[in-house]
TrEMBL record:
Its EC number is 1.-.-.-. One of its GO terms (molecular function) is oxidoreductase activity. Gene3D superfamilies: NAD(P)-binding Rossmann-like Domain (3.40.50.720). It comes from the Bacteria. Keywords: Oxidoreductase. The keyword Repeat does not apply. Belongs to the short-chain dehydrogenases/reductases (SDR) family. It is an enzyme of class 1 (oxidoreductase). InterPro entries: NAD(P)-bd_dom_sf, Sc_DH/Rdtase_CS, SDR_fam. The keyword Oxidoreductase applies. It comes from Leucobacter albus. It holds the Pfam family adh_short. This is SDR family NAD(P)-dependent oxidoreductase.
Length: 257
């Protein structure tokens, strides 16, 4: 049986890694991002290397019409989507008191509303078919006092836990993947050109994080903190006051993916 996955934010970073790993497993793909040219280049590589079917759907998910077009693809009965990976995201570098409120709204729409809308489009068909998988890429920041970015990611975690509890018995598995620092274009797009130099051990491997996320989704684990360094470190947050934890991040986004 052939499966088909729709991946948002597929043109770079973790989204591209999800696409590569799923293509290697023989999963057909629908790639979603704003940059059509980058998506087409990735699609060509995946078709050539793995022989899978790859659709390209260029869309700015913070634009209502584009979001509804992607939602329509998820609810389509023809060539149904078995796996939804909500990965698209960005961060706002300015502190909360100085940030642009329009950017704050875009951030919450992309990180919180978009995963909800796309899951809402995907769930009915998955339930009708008796199976489906939804992976929401959240962040370790969801468990820290890390400004509006963390609050938006916390919403993705809460949504994932709720859908997992409600629909697992019906064959639908939902996971929130919570990475820490990843060496991708994420920080560059924020304009974070003065991100402090950190030792290599602080950065998680994108390939490993994607593998852990897909494995957790297959097993039906509602929440996964990835990778092992962050699983070890996060319990320490209970020992520290919120004021200290908040100061560890000097911006709206403390640097966690």
């Amino acid at each position: 049986m052939s499966y088909r996955a729709l991946i948002t934010g597929a043109s770079a970073g973790l989204g591209t890694e999800f696409a590569r790993q799923l293509a290697a497993l023989g999963v057909d793909l629908v790639l979603v991002a704003r940059d059509a040219a980058r998506l087409e280049r990735l699609a060509h590589v995946l078709r050539s290397r793995y022989g899978v079917d790859v659709e390209v759907l260029a869309a700015d998910l913070t634009a209502s019409a584009a979001l509804e077009a992607v939602a329509g693809r998820l609810s389509a009965e023809e060539r149904p989507i078995d796996i939804l990976i909500n990965n698209a995201g960005f961060g706002v570098y300015a502190g909360f008191e100085a940030s642009d409120i329009t950017e704050e709204r875009r951030l919450h729409e992309l990180l919180s509303w978009v995963p909800l809308r796309l899951a809402h489009a995907a769930v009915p068909g998955m339930l009708e078919r008796g199976s489906g998988w939804i992976l929401n890429v959240a962040s370790a920041a969801a468990f820290l006092p890390s400004g509006s970015y963390g609050s938006a990611k916390a919403a993705a975690v809460s949504l994932s836990r709720s859908l997992s509890a409600r629909y697992r018995a019906s064959g639908l598995r939902v996971t929130a993947l919570c990475p820490g620092l990843l060496a991708t274009e994420f920080h560059e797009r924020m304009g974070e050109d003065h991100l402090p130099a950190l030792p290599s051990i602080a950065w998680a491997d994108t390939g490993r994080v994607a593998r852990e996320g897909l494995r957790a989704l297959y097993r039906g684990k509602p929440v996964l903190v990835s990778d092992w360094r962050y699983r070890l470190a996060l319990p320490l947050r209970a020992l520290l006051p919120d004021r200290l934890l908040e100061r560890l991040g000097t911006t709206n986004d403390p640097g966690l993916r």
